């Protein structure tokens, strides 16, 4: 039955943990708060170590909070990360998205920095600054870095953050057996979509939307074992999805994936969703990594990486690339459908559309079409934000305090 | 029509067929051994990438399966300019500039969707020139929500 305005605005008939107020996807103030409370203190994947294999190799990364970062491998082989902001006049230091730089030199006034973030040259320093300011005063802002969980370079803007392993906890245990061999990125693609970053992460956190994918229906949903896959939630908002055996040969033009992955059952598929917006997706022959970088309440850049093994022969690599592109490339069957779906959500939920609620109400014993993955995410979101996702603007302060504010 | 003009017309007809989603018509312009690739260099990972690689059979399947998938229906229009044609016996290497425009279904605004080079190998030995291979060498790397229809 169609709804009146009052019925449309009334909370859905579920426990409040099973829906969210859709203003959390559009409100500018909430978005700014998310950058401070969710992204700045979280460990975020900046790149993979194979993108910076040699000393002085660097890679630029825009942190989801908006901070431009450099990840650079030093002469000592350690990876460090710094703001890509010159401490002199606030200029960009490095422009190319990746490269090799023994000295990182700002083009504006030629101040130079080494891979430890030390300033090693200030042009005409003595003449201008005399003894008032020197190289030792002009270091780069360093941020925390750890390399792990398959060789990824993780950054954290909070100097007092807990170690990466404490943040990840046991959530990656399910993938650990399959990340013993060195990997290498062979695919990078950045998609900018007018939608909220959480909606992308939601899509990675539920499989009910397999109805949008012909490929997944044919090779997965209609095959034995599909409905046995289970979600497991972990501390800090992370979640995993167990495996099944995908029947790739059921899709015309596809075939059984011959390359496989060390230790993984043929056709196997594991996913790990990491708060607040990263996903490991190991599907038979390829590891895909998504990193969501919000650009606004209704705009997100999603960085997609495809990885194979460093030990791949050219034929094995070509097969992995083919497998990847069939569903996950920019012209692939599934990626376009997923991106189109969240683009549609962004279009329907943008400011002023009177979208009110998003329901996460499916309960199927935590199996594949249960929406527990999203509920788990929003429980953590609410905890960190100090706002209930179903009632984000509720103000429990006494009337007097509210009036004073 | 001289041979260069025939080759140019082949390139333009291939674009028009794809614009019109006349995939059968597109494949009729292709040799049985046709191979289609989309390649792009990523300065982020400093690697050459392949984004699509199909033989003629693979292209047929890709087109046949299209109605089963959920795709963006915005029309794409390809604007090609043949730059060079290098004859080499029974075949020619043809380099063209390509711009792909996308027109939104809602409102009709047109945006530049992608810029690329077409590097075609054209077979000349059967009377009518046929596409033996096409490499779409992408310059544009951000394609938003992407496309199910190749360039």
Terminal CA distance of chain B: 27 Å
Shape of chain A: globular
Helix vs. strand class of chain A = alpha+beta
Order of helices and strands of chain B: HHEEHEEEE
Q: What's the count of strands of chain B?
A: 6
> Strand arrangement, largest sheet of chain A?
2-11-10-5-4-3-6
- Number of separate domains of chain B: 1
Terminus-to-terminus distance of chain A: 42 Å
Total DSSP helices of chain B = 3
CATH architecture of the largest domain in chain A: Alpha-Beta Complex
What would you give as the CATH superfamily of the largest domain in chain A? Naphthalene 1,2-dioxygenase Alpha Subunit, Chain A, domain 1
Number of strands of chain A: 19
Radius of gyration of chain B: 15 Å
CATH topology of chain B: Nuclear Transport Factor 2, Chain: A
* Strand coverage percent of chain B: over 45%
Q: Structural class given helices, strands, pairing of chain B?
A: alpha+beta
Largest interface: A-B, 37 and 32 residues
Question: Explain this structure to me?
Answer:
The complex is a heterodimer of chains A (405) and B (151). Chain A is an alpha+beta fold. Chain A has helices at 5-9, 28-39, 125-129, 164-168, 197-204, 214-221, 314-328, 333-349, 372-385, 399-404; strands at 19-21, 44-48, 57-62, 68-73, 79-83, 98-100, 104-105, 112-113, 119-121, 142-148, 152-156, 183-193, 231-233, 239-241, 269-274, 278-283, 286-296, 299-309, 357-359. In chain A, the strands form 4 sheets. In chain A, strands 2-11-10-5-4-3-6 form a 7-stranded antiparallel β-sheet, with no helix packed on it. In chain A, strands 12-18-17-16-15-14-13 form a 7-stranded antiparallel β-sheet. In chain A, strands 7-8-9 form a 3-stranded antiparallel β-sheet, with no helix packed on it. Chain B has 151 residues and is of the alpha+beta class. Chain B has one domain: Nuclear Transport Factor 2, Chain: A. In chain B, a hairpin with a 6-residue loop joins strand 4 (91-103) and strand 5 (110-123). The mean pLDDT of chain B is 96.
